[in-house]
Fold these 2 entries.
Entry 1:
Amino acid sequence: MTLKYLLRGIEDTNTLGRCLSESVRPGDILLLSGDLGAGKTCLTKAIASGLGIEEREVTSPSFTIIHEHLNGRLPLIHVDLYRLGRHADITEIGLEEYINGENLVVIEWADYLDGPLLEQGLRIDLRLIDEKVREACITGRADIWKERLLELDGCMGKK
């Protein structure tokens, strides 16, 4: 199942993040991809805010690769694979220990991954339309994500 939204500025990105935060559960994996500057970290900040985590605490973990934010409704594990490049090995960075059914794991540059995470996660591709407008294409397996994608779409329609 796939949803598409035009995000016309930071407020629309914040709305998408808040709506996503309402539908995620422990153990979920959000797989963010898109060009540099497409808004992956901004979306992660908005998700964190919706979980009750201070947005200012969320920065791009490009150099540390993994940041833990444990003080929200769900523990948020924020991962950035940019420095690792194509075919990132999650065992080398210890990501497997966070995929334990308790955390929400948000992975930036998820298109660098191979393997089963791509099957179970919710893919969010952000594409630059122009300097202010992004397109968000959200795709998840129907057997895992259909109900929550319908909730997300309802939330986005209200805001």
Note: The chain has a mean pLDDT of 88.
Entry 2:
Amino acid sequence: MQGKRENVCISPLAKVAQGAKIAPGVTIEGKSVIGEGAVIRPGCIIEDSVIGARTEVTASVLTGAKVGEDCTVGPFAYLRKGADIADGCRIGDFVEVKNARVGEGTKVAHLTYVGDCEIGKGCNIGCGVVFVNYDGKRKNRTVVGDRCFIGSNCNIIAPVSIKDGCYIAAGTTVTDDVGKDDLVIGRVRQVVKPGRARGRFC
């Protein structure tokens, strides 16, 4: 372990590999494992989680999560119990992952909820996407294949299956299964009422 040790709290049950860098203001709790060459930046709380080699985590909370090698997490990500992030992934700012697997090389850049689902390899999940996993009575699961693009501000209503190579256009609500290489557009058409807004707000 390299770097300053002021204001760092590391559980005696945790394992920190050689060459890992732990910044000030970090708490590592429980039986966490920090891989060789990993970088844990200020503001992180890591509890009973595994961080792979050369992965960087910034100002994020991980509880019961597993993150592979060569990933970046944060700032302000929240990886909850059952989050399983494969190698080479990007989990960005204000992303929450719970009971979900994210495949190798997939990017979930910002402002997204990934709950009770499995996402394949090489996918891009846009800003503001919500995997809608709760119907008021039970949690439901979503499966997304490899090389899928899910545009910004989409709602994925579980249970649903999205096959390999799909493109989900921004603003779409997905309620039915999607076949391989399908393009899905599910948004209301814009309606313009010329001049009708005059005087409504100011």
Note: Residues 9-184 form a domain with the UDP N-Acetylglucosamine Acyltransferase; domain 1 fold (CATH 2.160.10.10).
